[in-house]
Specification:
alpha/beta; 5-stranded parallel sheet; 25% strand; disordered C terminus
Length: 417
């Protein structure tokens, strides 16, 4: 029996496993390796710090997310031995494979920044990229009355690049609704030269930061937290004091990537950006946050990558050439506070553009504009995620980005002004 082995049962790994099990004949065994008993809906972590109490709704039992016929191996991975087509698990047992899919995502590493994890961790310093961190922030923010709230991205790449901006926007709304916004200074420190990685979206989002009186500190490469005081120090010597620090720590790939000889300096796997085949390994494919492709590490990207990967896995099995199925498509709702949100839609070659989505001229969603329906769309996506996306059901949105409804001329004129 041939073996399709998938490492990781997050968003990408689960979608691929469920779809390939339905696609492949019974001559193929489909296995997923993941030590965690639960599956976490990560976008929901953004709302917990601001009073949401639905953390139990963000978690599903792993066995309930994997379809019939998918074998779940409850183990961690020790290393991959690609020259032998096998994976060694943490208990030293071995799984051979014909095709390997690496879908082990990324992990946050606050320990990689000096002084970040100390006696202040989860007291006046925390992240919101983990369930524990988000719950700690909920308590911290509820007690916060005045001072400087510093939101810092340590370095790129990170999961969901718009999430730190969303946090800053929601913090502005949170303190406004509590009537203490004039007593709280919000500072957004980023290693980028603007609010976002794409110029047009950065311009729009930067305007919102200015409008909401959120100070932006650009090109701030955090090196350490000062031992003697509450201050974040950059490599160029700049220092930002804080009363509360919300950190987006360094992200790396899974621990087994380095001893397997498969990754770059941050343990992300060098991957063909359009076929998603691992560079130098024909029978290894990589998806989601585990790749080094220049696309956002976001749930929508994992979805669109999965659509293309399933097609290319079928081609590979049939002995056909791979196609460039993935175009870098990302589609992200951006919470802007006070029950409103934006929507951005872009790929490798096309900037986020204004317009209507998905129906030209109608929407209902507005691109690069705040609206109530965009906020509701983000909230509704949790149901879609658990009931449609993870099971691998057909989704109405095409994997490759469409230009329908996008206002290209408006953007071209704004760039030349």
């Amino acid at each position: 029996m041939k073996h399709l082995l998938i490492l990781g049962a997050g968003t990408a790994g689960t979608i691929v496993a469920n779809r390939m099990r339905r696609s492949l004949s019974k001559e193929w065994r489909v296995s997923v390796v993941d030590p965690s008993d639960t599956h976490l809906y990560q976008p929901g972590l953004l709302f917990l710090p601001f009073g949401a109490k639905d953390e139990s709704e963000l978690v599903r039992l792993r066995g309930d997310t994997l379809g019939s016929g998918v074998e779940w191996v409850r183990q961690g991975v020790e290393r991959v031995e690609p020259e032998k087509n096998r994976v060694v698990l943490e208990d030293e047992s071995v799984l051979d494979y014909d095709i390997l899919v690496i879908a082990t995502g990324s992990q946050v590493r606050p320990d990689m920044t000096e002084g970040l994890v100390d006696k202040r961790w989860h007291k006046s310093i925390s992240d919101f990229y983990t369930l524990q961190g988000s719950l700690a922030l909920r308590e911290m923010l509820a007690k916060f009355e005045r001072g400087r709230l510093l939101v810092n991205i340590v370095e790129m790449p990170i999961k969901c690049p718009v999430a730190p901006l969303e946090f800053a926007f929601l913090a502005d709304a949170y303190f406004t609704e509590r009537g203490i916004r004039n007593q709280v200074e919000i500072v957004y420190a980023t290693p980028l030269d603007g609010a976002f990685t794409r110029p047009i979206a950065s311009q729009r989002l930067g305007y919102l930061l200015e409008q909401k009186n959120i100070r932006v500190e650009t090109e701030f490469a955090a090196s350490s937290v000062d031992d003697g005081k509450n201050a974040l120090v950059s490599f160029d010597g700049r220092s930002l004091d804080f009363d509360m620090l919300v950190t987006i720590p360094t992200h790396t790939g899974a621990d087994f990537i380095e001893p397997s000889g498969l990754g770059d300096e941050l343990s992300f796997v060098p991957t063909d950006s359009r076929t998603l085949q691992a560079k130098g390994h024909n029978n290894i494919f990589v998806i989601g946050d585990a790749t080094d492709v220049p696309a956002s590490k976001a749930g929508s990207v994992a979805h669109f990558e999965a659509d293309g990967m399933v097609i290319n896995l079928e081609r590979y099995i049939a002995g056909k050439p791979l196609e460039e199925e993935f175009d870098g498509h990302a589609n992200c709702f951006v919470e802007t506070g006070h029950g409103k949100g934006m929507l951005i839609d872009f790929n490798y070659d096309v900037e986020p553009l204004p317009g209507k989505f998905p129906v030209p001229g109608i929407g209902p969603f507005s691109l690069l504009e705040e609206s109530r329906i965009n906020h509701l769309g983000k909230l509704a996506f949790r149901w879609v995620y658990f009931n449609g996306l993870l099971p691998g059901k057909p989704m109405p949105m095409a994997a490759q980005m469409s230009m329908l409804g996008k206002q290209v001329q408006e953007v071209e004129s704004s760039i030349t002004e």
